[in-house]
């Protein structure tokens, strides 16, 4: 369903915004994601995702916290909205529910 | 920057600016911040170069729809409808004011048509000799003589090309052209070996086999490397081959030149016809292989008759070669002079240089380099381009003037549109659309005009221009030009018109067109200044032309028939002459091809006074081989001494010189003096009045006339005839009696003389054309302006009339302002024109003084033209019935 569906990358970005609470801006999110996933993340795809998530209403943003390191420019700081939190929650619950349905047997064969 | 003494490395500015340009504002700041932070990290880790590259890569990554600036609301409106409305309004305005629209468009079209023609002309001129694949390596040799007797010319002694080929490694090929000054000239008789009738042909020249390769002459039959490599071979152009050998490969066929059956020429190949835009125009090239014009000619440095073309190896520096050629001069030429005991060796060593001229420059940039070719002149290109631009500018001014003057009519529309929510930008767009619309219509008309008048221009300018309808660039560039001119002309009016305040307009405060009348006057002055300068230019050029054609001839050029090709009579020449003398109308007959006009034979030598050969520098003088009857046939005036006398055997060693010769040698008593050119010595028996035998641009040079064999290919016949046709008929009959198989070729001396000044005449006519066009455009504008003014003041005029003003009074009232403007124009134009024409005349040695009457005449003409333009409207207003205009109030 469009609107509530969360892609994998979107979910990761949302989670990173949550983790970086209060200081979640583009580059920090990339750093966080690269650290956690070990993947190489394109800066444009992060911004693209942020724009989309904001359009979906999962994130809101404001400008602020400029530093000398960025040519004095402000950061666009993102925070989770209620909707965003709820979407994360739902995603997590969906997973948990599905996890539970996997028969034990599966795990045992894995252990072999 | 915080405390940094040296600036922090920054990412490339243009990338930053680019991102800001395409990226939505919402995102740009944050993204840039992130990118710069990243950049700083990278600079430390990877260095500035890589960081820059990565930064640019990142910016490019953002070229995605999500980041793009969203279009603002304006452009989401339906543009098409708006433009449709603009066009509709433009159309209605045009059709409501047919006269004004007609004048604007007509003027525009005239200006544009002029510009188009000039553009085609310039394009043609600039396209000369651009066809060579290795054009940047092909050069023509020329001589430069520095110092007070400075001169530049292209004739080179025979051995030079060979020396260049063998001794200079940077020269890939060197080839000579002998443009017909030896041999039989550029014109001659031609026939197939198996034909009887001779045909007269032009465009002969002698060429080295290498020349075909150097000039990359495309061949139809044969190859450039082999076509001329055997003695007595000749190549023909395609059109001549088609004429004499239709539908066959003529290679190996024999032809006879000048009825000389003892020497057959074999066709070695056929060249494609020379394109019109090359300086090298020949239909017949005879090989120089094995050719010697007299014994020892090919190895001697005595006589300079060849043009030399070289092709350098790629990478060779022409300037360095010019330097190296001084060695060639010293080891060969100077040595030759010293062997001859010539005193000029030291002077030559100091002043003479062999130089190289790029082949692409030959046509346009040979000013001051003397050769026999027809040239364009880069200065005329500038001049014509400038004049065309000015005429177009005049047309643009008409548009600006009329649309601002008529602004009152549009003011209400502007006010209403603004009230209805239009912003200024829309109105500017509207008026620009309108002017582009005008420009579109004008372009269409202009194209038609060009199409219709191009043949006329072609005869005027001696060109063969065509409209390149089918070239891919033609229509696109027309469209671009149309938009450009539309916008340029519309810019000021659109800003002016769109600035009206709706409240003022709707209240009726906007004064009716009186605003910016100062600017309008300035523009009228500009128009008339341009026109007057062109009028003065035309007058001066015409006067100079007349002066050249009527003065300093020194001989009587009227009623002289020139018969060409008479050397083919061989031993019958004198009999034929006597036959002619027996005709009723014939007064004198002379046999000499050294005509005092363009196309005559020429021979230059260094001359000394007898006995001073080892002491003095030689003075260059022409030596013309004439016969006893020459001076009387030409009716040259003897100012001192006597003419040649048939009875005196000693006259074969005598010379008649011109006044320039006497002056140059500083002879006090010329008659009896002995002069020598080395091998020959002459005694001066007479002095003729100076006459011009070269272009009038140059000073008359020294000349000596001697009785000597040779140069018999032309007869000149002085006739006294009331009916030239009948005279020519009897001449033809006499010729056909002697030479039944040869065409009778004749010309007139005055025509040949006039041909020397072709370019001046052409200039004069083209300039007159320009001046007329400029005046027409300016007058169209003035006419419309006066109409507008009359229209505006119609109530005032009516009231004046009712109160008893006379017709003359009204007329004066309406015209005096315009006349004032024209006076101002005269004042401005006079010094400008004087300066320009003085510069133009500086080229001529014999020139008219620029007298005041030219300016008076031009001024009077312009006032007369302006007055008659304005008076139509003024008189109509002054004679109108005042009741008509006042009735409605």
Description:
The complex is a heterodimer of chains A (112) and B (889). Chain A has 112 residues and is mainly α. Chain A has one domain (8-111): Winged helix-like DNA-binding domain superfamily/Winged helix DNA-binding domain (Arc Repressor Mutant, subunit A), CATH 1.10.10.10. Chain A is built from 5 helices and 2 strands. Chain A has a two-stranded antiparallel ribbon. In chain A, α2 crosses α3. Chain A is elongated, with a radius of gyration of 17 Å. Chain B has 889 residues and is of the alpha+beta class. In chain B, 50% of the residues lie in helices and 15% in strands. In chain B, the strands form 3 sheets. In chain B, strands 1, 2, 3, 4, 5, 6, 7, 8, 9, 10, 11, 12 and 13 form a 13-stranded mixed sheet that branches. A 6-stranded mixed barrel of chain B has the order 16-17-22-19-21-20. In chain B, β20 and β21 form a beta hairpin. Chain B is globular. Chain A binds chain B through residues 25-27, 42-44, 47-48, 51-52, 63, 66, 68-71, 73-76, and chain B through 1-2, 10, 27, 29-38, 40, 58, 61-62, 64, 66-67.
Rg over CA atoms of chain B: 37 Å
* Gross morphology of chain A: elongated
Secondary-structure element string of chain A: HHHEEHH
Mean pLDDT of chain A: 84
Strand content of chain B: 5-15%
Percent of residues of chain A in helical segments?
Answer: 55-70%
Specify which chain pair forms the largest interface: A-B, 20 and 21 residues
Output the structural class of chain A: mainly alpha
Distance between the termini of chain A: 38 Å
- Give me the CATH superfamily of chain A: Winged helix-like DNA-binding domain superfamily/Winged helix DNA-binding domain
Number of distinct beta strands of chain B: 24
CATH uppermost class of chain A? Mainly Alpha
Rg of chain A (CA only): 17 Å
Major sheet size, sense and barrel closure of chain A = 2 strands, antiparallel
User: What is the CATH topology descriptor of chain A?
Assistant: Arc Repressor Mutant, subunit A
Domain Transcription regulator PadR N-terminal (chain A): 22-90
Protein name (chain A): Transcriptional regulator PadR-like family protein
Pfam family, one (chain A): PadR
InterPro entries (chain A): Metal_resp_DNA-bind_regulator (IPR052509), Tscrpt_reg_PadR_N (IPR005149), WH-like_DNA-bd_sf (IPR036388), WH_DNA-bd_sf (IPR036390)
């Amino acid at each position: 369903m469009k609107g509530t569906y969360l892609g994998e990358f979107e979910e990761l970005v949302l989670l990173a915004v949550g983790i970086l609470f209060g200081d979640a801006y583009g580059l920090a999110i990339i750093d966080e994601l690269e650290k956690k996933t070990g993947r190489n993340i394109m800066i444009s795809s992060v911004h693209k995702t942020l724009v989309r998530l904001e359009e979906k209403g999962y994130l809101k943003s404001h400008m602020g916290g400029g530093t000398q390191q960025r040519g004095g420019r402000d950061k666009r700081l993102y925070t989770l909205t209620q909707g965003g939190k709820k979407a994360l929650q739902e995603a997590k619950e969906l997973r948990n529910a599905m996890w539970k349905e996997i028969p034990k047997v599966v795990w045992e064969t894995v252990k072999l | 920057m915080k405390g940094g003494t040296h600036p922090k490395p920054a990412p490339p500015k243009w990338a930053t600016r680019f991102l800001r340009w395409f990226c939505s504002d919402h995102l740009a700041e944050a993204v840039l911040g992130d990118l710069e932070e990243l950049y700083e990290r990278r600079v430390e880790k990877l260095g500035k170069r890589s960081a820059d590259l990565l930064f640019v890569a990142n910016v490019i990554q953002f070229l995605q729809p999500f980041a793009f600036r969203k279009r603002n609301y304006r452009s989401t409106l339906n543009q098409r409808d708006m433009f449709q409305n603009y066009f509709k309004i433009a159309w209605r305005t045009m059709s409501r004011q047919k006269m004004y629209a007609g004048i604007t468009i007509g003027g525009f079209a005239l200006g544009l048509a002029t510009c188009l023609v000039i553009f085609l002309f310039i394009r043609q001129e600039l396209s000369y000799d651009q066809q060579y694949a290795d054009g940047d390596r092909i050069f023509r040799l020329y001589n430069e003589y520095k110092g007070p007797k400075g001169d530049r010319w292209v004739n080179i002694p025979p051995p030079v090309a060979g020396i260049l080929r063998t001794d200079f490694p940077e020269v890939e090929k060197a080839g000579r052209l002998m443009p017909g000054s030896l041999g039989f000239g550029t014109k001659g008789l031609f026939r197939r070996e198996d034909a009887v009738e001779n045909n007269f042909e032009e465009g002969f020249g002698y060429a080295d086999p290498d020349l075909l390769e150097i000039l990359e002459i495309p061949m139809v039959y044969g190859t450039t490397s082999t076509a001329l490599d055997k003695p007595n071979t000749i190549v023909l152009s395609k059109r001549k081959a088609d004429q004499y050998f239709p539908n066959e490969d003529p290679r190996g066929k024999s032809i006879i030149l000048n009825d000389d059956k003892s020497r057959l020429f074999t066709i070695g190949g056929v060249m494609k016809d020379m394109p019109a835009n090359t300086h090298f125009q020949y239909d017949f090239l005879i090989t120089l292989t094995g050719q010697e014009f007299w014994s020892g000619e090919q190895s001697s440095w005595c006589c300079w008759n060849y043009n030399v073309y070289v092709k350098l190896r790629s990478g060779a520096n022409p300037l360095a070669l010019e330097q190296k050629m001084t060695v060639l001069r010293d080891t060969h030429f100077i040595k030759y002079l010293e062997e001859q005991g010539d005193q000029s060796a030291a002077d030559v060593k100091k002043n003479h240089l062999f130089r190289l001229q790029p082949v692409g420059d030959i046509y346009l940039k040979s000013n001051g380099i003397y050769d026999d070719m027809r040239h364009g002149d880069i200065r005329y290109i500038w001049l014509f381009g400038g004049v065309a631009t000015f005429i177009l500018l005049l047309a643009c001014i008409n548009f600006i003037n009329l649309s601002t003057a008529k602004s009152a009519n549009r003011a209400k529309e502007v006010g209403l549109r603004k009230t209805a929510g239009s912003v200024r930008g829309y109105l500017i767009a509207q008026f620009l659309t309108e002017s582009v619309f005008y420009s579109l219509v004008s372009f269409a008309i202009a194209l038609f005009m060009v199409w219709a008048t191009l043949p006329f221009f072609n005869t005027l300018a001696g060109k063969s221009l065509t409209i390149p309808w089918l070239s891919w660039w033609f229509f696109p560039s027309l469209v671009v030009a149309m938009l450009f001119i539309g916008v340029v002309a519309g810019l000021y009016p659109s800003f002016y018109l769109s600035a009206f305040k709706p409240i003022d307009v709707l209240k009726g405060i906007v004064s009716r067109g009186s605003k910016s009348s100062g600017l309008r006057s300035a523009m009228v002055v500009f128009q008339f200044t341009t026109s007057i300068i062109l009028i003065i230019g035309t007058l001066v050029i015409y006067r100079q032309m007349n002066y050249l054609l009527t003065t300093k001839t020194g001989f009587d050029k009227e009623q002289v028939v020139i018969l060409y090709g008479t050397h083919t009579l061989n031993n019958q020449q004198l009999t034929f002459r006597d036959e002619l003398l027996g005709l009723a109308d014939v007064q004198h007959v002379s046999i000499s091809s050294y005509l005092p006009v363009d196309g005559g034979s020429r021979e230059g030598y260094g001359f000394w006074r007898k006995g001073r050969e080892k002491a003095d520098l030689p003075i260059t003088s022409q030596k013309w081989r004439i016969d006893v009857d020459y001076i009387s046939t030409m009716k040259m005036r003897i100012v001192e001494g006597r003419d040649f006398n048939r009875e005196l055997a000693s006259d074969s060693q005598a010379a008649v010189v011109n006044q320039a010769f006497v002056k140059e040698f500083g002879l006090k008593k010329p008659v009896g003096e002995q002069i020598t050119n080395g091998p020959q010595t002459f005694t001066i028996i007479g002095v003729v009045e100076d006459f011009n035998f070269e272009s009038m641009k140059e000073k008359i040079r020294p000349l000596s006339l001697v009785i000597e064999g040779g140069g018999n290919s032309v007869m000149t016949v002085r006739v006294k005839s009331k009916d030239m046709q009948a005279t020519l008929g009897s001449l033809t009959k006499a010729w056909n009696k002697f030479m039944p198989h040869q065409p009778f070729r004749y010309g007139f001396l005055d025509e040949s003389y006039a041909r020397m000044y072709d370019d001046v005449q052409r200039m004069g006519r083209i300039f007159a054309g320009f001046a007329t066009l400029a005046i027409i455009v300016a007058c169209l504008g003035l006419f419309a302006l006066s109409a507008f003014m009359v229209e505006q003041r119609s109530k005032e005029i009516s009231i004046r009339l009712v109160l008893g003003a006379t017709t003359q009074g009204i007329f004066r009232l309406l015209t005096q302002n315009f006349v004032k403007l024209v006076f101002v124009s005269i004042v401005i134009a006079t010094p400008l024109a004087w300066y320009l024409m003085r510069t133009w005349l500086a080229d001529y040695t014999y020139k008219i003084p620029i007298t005041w009457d030219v300016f008076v005449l031009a001024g009077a003409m312009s006032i007369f033209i302006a007055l008659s333009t304005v008076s139509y409207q003024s008189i109509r207003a002054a004679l109108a019935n005042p009741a008509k205009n006042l009735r409605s109030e």
